[in-house]
Amino acid sequence: MKKGFLIAGSMAALTAAMPAGAQEAELAEAESEVIVVTAQKREEALQDVPISITVVNGEALRDQGAGSLVDYAGYVPGMTVISSQPGTSIISLRGIAPVGSAQAVGIYLDDAPVGSSSLYARSATYSLDLMPYDIAGLEILRGPQGTLYGASSIGGLLKYRTVAPSTTDFSVKAGGELFTIDHAGNPGWAAQVMVNAPIVQDKLGMTGSFSWRKTPGFVSSVNNPALNDANSVEQVGGRVSLLWNATEDFTVRLGGIWQTIDANATNNVVSTVAGVPLGDGWSYNAFLPEPFHKSIDYYSAVLDYDLGFATLTSVSTYSETKTSSVQDASLVFGVAFPALSGGAVPEGLAPFSIELGLEKYTQEIRLASPSNDRFEWMIGAFYTKETSENHQLVRTFDFSGEPNLFDPGAIVSLPSTFKEMAVFANATAYFGDVFALSGGLRYAKNKQNFQQISEGPFIGDASFTGSSKEDVFIYSISPQIHISEDAMLYARIANGYRPGGPNVVFPGVPPQVAADTLVNYEIGFKGNLGSTLAVEVAGFYMDWTDIQVVQPFGGVTGQANGPSAVSKGVEGSVTWRPVPGLSVVASAAYADAKLTADAPEISGVDGARLPSVPKFTGSVQADYSFGIGENASGKVGLGLRHSSRLASLPSSSPDNLWSDPYTALDANAAVTFDDHWTVRVYARNLTNKRASTQRSFVLNAFGAQAYQANVPLQPRTIGVALDMAF
Question: 13: pLDDT confidence band, cut at 50, 70 and 90?
Fold first, then answer.
């Protein structure tokens, strides 16, 4: 027990190609490498963790030419990402997607959460989306992770791991990339550099990186010829991290991450209510520009002190996130001007802008025993404070650009604060070499304050305040049977929650929304079947109650606790390594996520499919690394990913639309010379498959269907890159 081994099926691809001189030996060493994860906030072999986990390394992401979450989600079992542009992603795991406004999958950056846990920061939509060059890898944990990771991780957790500084070795990595997207008017490009520099040998080291990526647009407006190839995106990011080994027992790691995303429009393409595409099928209907900007500044300090009997860890973070977007709501509000004015105001323009701001401070202190094969324990405390701003503005103009009678149509501010304190404990007891039992507990208490300020003819004047308090207790328990050093059977019961909070003030709207909770029942197997085959599989049943939803209340929308639902299914991956250098990975997930009671507040009935969740996803990847002469090595890879259709709303809703099922083919290849220079080529959606990954109705001011908005599968993307490493 506690030896661990490589579950290769949990990796999206091999890392860089092996040097030719000792190819077979190095490949054998790589294939026997132990994958280390931090899912339980200590370093452990993946095989020893009784949680369904997928690990994707940063090198694999770069091989695929990935630039955002949606580019690699198709190869993670049970994970779906719906994204109209980088930085606006709806993430689901195991059939659990955000039905309300709060995220259902938690996001961590190394040791701390990012994003908001409150109801008014729109965390369900605006997720952290780091460029791959900033990260060493990802850990995707499926099922509730609340005992160790707290609120809003009822579906699972996405954990970014950044590159750690070295205090011994100097290294430089840099690269440039050119790529094309079918139907885009211009090529895209990317550039990045990373430096690691020991400052004091064995004592002090620093690493820093900078990335800049420009993705061209391929969607144009039929109502404004100036909005051609409008959905271009620019991403700029930087990171600095400092590691100080103050003594043999005390280390300090400081870090900062900065990233901005700027887009000129979303990649939505539009169809009529009847589903007839506008223009050439890569068109939308905006009259006005729809710029989007998102920035994050993130600072962290991690202190570790080895006390002998345990390690004391302090994690402090501060982050500031700003998001601004403009949506052309002319076909939502502008078409209603005549009816609202009794014919005095003709149809016109209505830009709708949203400004979001979030300041988040977190502090965690934990004490963890050394890893051993008898009894491991961890206790800790956590505190977070969030201050969020949500400002919304609807302007009204005639088609010449002059303000009309209604201007401004609506001004809304929803400032809020969220404070949470929690204590937690986790332990694993080993009973010989065969049986182990893990469990965890967490008690959390949060307090929220909320203010609603509004004016304008579309919404009316109001100024209200609200507050709420909430106590939550969550748990996990997991027995494990180690069949051998290379195989484990485990079960897991765990629950999680999303915080409730105060509600908008309006007749008929409940003053407070309670937390929704989810209980997960799971059984899984991780193991090697012989020397060339690895299997990881899990079956699950997830019971979700008091689901937070957004529903209309006589002309306004508010939060409410709605129905119950169940998601049940199976997920897994199989890895076959028949010969040195060749890896074939097949993964699949089936999730039957349905309401278990009528939900009139969201037009749902018992048995209706939950939105944003495909019933089946699957992928196959094959990677082969080989030597080329004395000083070069090569690598080729193919990937096939498939998703069944998903609903935009509960499937019983009259406004629901289904997406397209699709299958996409990806490929990549690389040649490395002298272990320093690498030329890469890649292709995503090589066959240029046309599909809508999400299709939904946009409703006008009277609740009638105005048009269909479709999030397309990105057209064929082909790129070439040159990397150097010294």
Answer: very low
The pair of structure tokens assigned to 47 is 């095989």
Inform me whether the pLDDT recorded for 568 exceeds 50.
yes
> Could you tell me the pLDDT band of residue 132, with boundaries at 50, 70 and 90?
low
CB 130 within 8 A of CB 160: yes
1-15, 179-193, 240-254, 331-345: least confident range: 1-15
What is the DSSP-derived secondary structure letter of residue 349? B
Kindly report the length of the chain: 726
Give me the residues paired with residue 447 across strands.
419, 469
Instruction: Classify residue 720 by burial, with Cβ atoms within 10 Å: 0-12, 13-18, 19+.
Output: middle
| DSSP one-letter code for 277 | B
Whether pLDDT at 7 is above 70: no
Tell me how far apart the terminal alpha carbons of the chain are, to the nearest angstrom: 38
Give the three-class secondary structure for 119: coil
Q: Work out the mean pLDDT of the chain and round it to a whole number.
A: 90
Q: Show contacts of 196-203: CB within 8 Å, 24+ apart.
A: 196/163, 196/165, 196/166, 196/169, 196/170, 196/171, 196/172, 197/170, 198/166, 198/167, 198/168, 198/169, 198/170, 200/167, 201/167, 201/168, 202/167, 202/168, 202/245, 203/167, 203/244, 203/245, 203/246
The 10 Å CB-count burial string (b at 16+, else e) for 548-561 is: bbbbebeebebbbb
Rounded to whole angstroms, how far apart are CA atoms 551 and 603?
10
CA distances from 36 to 55, 78, 416, 565, 704 (A): 9, 22, 39, 35, 52
What letters, b where the CB count within 10 A reaches 16 and e where it falls short, cover 366-379? bbbbeeeeeebebb
Three-class DSSP labels, 286-345:
CCCCCCEEEEEEEEEEEEEEECCCCEEEEEEEEEEEEEEEEEECCCCCHHHHHHHCCCCC
Cα–Cα nearest to 354, from 388, 387, 385, 331: 388
Residue 514 to residue 560: CA distance in whole angstroms: 8
CA atoms of 585 and 575, how far apart (whole Å): 4
Rounded-to-integer distance, Cα 375 and Cα 430, Å: 6
Beta bridge partners, 85, equal 88
The pair of three-digit structure tokens given for residue 540, joined into one six-digit string = 């699950």
Q: Could you give the CA distance from residue 96 to residue 277 in angstroms, rounded to a whole number?
A: 30
**What distance in Å separates the CA atoms of residue 544 and residue 595, rounded to the nearest whole number?**
9
Work out the average pLDDT over 363-377: 95
Rounded to a whole number of angstroms, the CA Rg of the chain reads 26
pLDDT value at 554 more than 60: no
Distance between CA atoms of 74 and 372, rounded to whole angstroms?
36
DSSP SS3 for 527 = strand
What are the tokens at 31? 């294939």
SS3 74: helix
Give the residues across from 720 on adjacent strands: 178, 681
Instruction: Indicate the pTM of the whole model.
Output: 0.91
Nearest to 267 by CA among 726, 712, 616, 720: 712
Query: How do 516-528 and 487-498 pair as beta strands?
Result: antiparallel
Closest by Cα among 100, 11, 105 to 503 = 100
Most confident segment among 13-22, 93-102, 485-494:
485-494
**What is the predicted pLDDT for the residue at 530?**
86
Q: What is the DSSP letter of 272?
A: -
pLDDT at position 123 is 84
DSSP string, 569-582: EEEEEEEE--STTE
Cite the beta strand spans of 17-134 per DSSP E. Answer: 36-37, 44-45, 53-57, 79-85, 88-93, 105-109, 112-113
